[in-house]
Give the backbone structure.
Amino acid sequence: MTGLCRRIGAGLAALVVMGCAGADAGADDPQSPAAVTPDGTFAASDTCATDEDAFAGRLRHLEREKDAVVGVYAFATGTGEDLAYRADERFAFASTGKALAAAVVLDQLSSRDLSRRLYWTEADLVPYSPVTELHVEDGLTVRAVLEAAVTVSDNTAANLMFDLIGGPRGLDEALEDVGDDTTEAVRREPDLNDYTPGDVRDTTTPRAIASSLAAFAVGGELKPSDERLFNNMLLRNTTGDALIRAAVPASWRVGDKTGSASYGTRNDIAVVTSPGRTPVVVAVLTRHSTADAATDDGLVAEAARAVVGSWCGPH
């Protein structure tokens, strides 16, 4: 694992206001890591003083305790400081990809297009479609389809989004346009959740998916009105209360998208904002060793708590 505090990649350079003191700054500093202050913000420091070994050790302990693999990437959009653990290892992205697909739809369609009505048939419905299954007769607007996909993770809504952007290949190409040549979108719902270790289809890395989320949510890839709409959808997500949101004070704003797949895959990607600070983008991706393993919300929440407890400075 490389230094926790380092300048983020060139693809997100526009988000950086100032960098860290150095990749290993503070590694031998005896002071404890920055913590959450009583007012619900990260404690400030003049330099990066995070104990890299302690952060990695906490996650290794969590992996042993849960018999799991955990990948984390988090960075402060105001400073470029970051935290990383298995940040470049591949995981199934599962339904977290719905957030990226929704952002691509917003990027490619006009505001008028969002009011256009979409229709489908019973044959188009796939498992877990709690919103779209109720609207086979009357359809939904494009905007409502995006909201169904992002806020309740409706799978048919996800496929309707794919139809609007040229399928999984269209999503893949759009992500490459924002600098993400790592994420591999290949299949539609629900097949994309059929993950096998070593298969790169429908996988990403914590670093790649966090960077793509940041590009759309705070990086200016979307026009301001679409960026606000996108973030509002993330904030109104109904599936993430037990994940990253459970790891932060109630006063913080968390807009997120969760995902689940085989091998006990449980993921959460989020834009996290504490009072008076610029956003921190966080990706926590997890999996287990057997195909039928249960998902574990607490695993994601504990990994997110490690981020909060180990943050290395002001943002």
